[in-house]
């Protein structure tokens, strides 16, 4: 599994509504995410609106393309786009800034020592 971490910026005036929306994500959206390879998916929100997301997937491209083929994702992304700063024409699920992984404990523990 590939680990993916990403960053988005929620508009400060929309933070509370964003949190409410994610407290009860549509069941068909949850199922679509799971079915298209978004596993162990979490979102973390700083008080100023910095959003960090994390998920594991066999392929980021396949996970994004799989969601793009679902009807529910189009509806969800259209509703969520207004919550973010600087997305341009991109949807939130493709317009995020992917962060580079620079450390993973288990990878180093599993590495043979010299």
UniProtKB/TrEMBL annotation:
SUPFAM superfamilies noted in UniProt: Dimeric alpha+beta barrel
InterPro entries listed in its UniProt record: Dimeric_a/b-barrel, Rham/fucose_mutarotase
Pfam families to which the protein is assigned, alphabetical: rhaM
Entry EC no(s): 5.1.3.32
Keyword Transmembrane: no
MF-aspect GO terms: L-rhamnose mutarotase activity
Keywords linked to the UniProt accession: Isomerase
Domain of life according to the entry: Bacteria
Keyword Isomerase on entry: yes
GO biological process entries: rhamnose catabolic process
Descriptive protein name: L-rhamnose mutarotase
Organism: Aeromicrobium yanjiei
């Amino acid at each position: 599994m590939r680990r993916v971490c990403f960053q988005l910026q929620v508009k400060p005036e929309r933070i509370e509504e964003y949190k409410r929306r994610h407290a009860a994500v549509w069941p068909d959206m949850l199922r679509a995410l799971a079915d298209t390879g978004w596993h162990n998916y979490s979102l973390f929100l700083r008080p100023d609106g910095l959003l960090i997301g994390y998920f594991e997937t066999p392929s980021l491209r396949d996970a994004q393309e799989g969601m793009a083929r679902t009807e529910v994702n189009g509806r969800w992304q259209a509703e969520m786009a207004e919550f973010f700063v600087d997305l341009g024409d991109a949807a939130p699920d493709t317009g995020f800034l992917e962060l580079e992984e620079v450390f993973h404990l288990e990878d180093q523990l599993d590495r043979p020592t010299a």
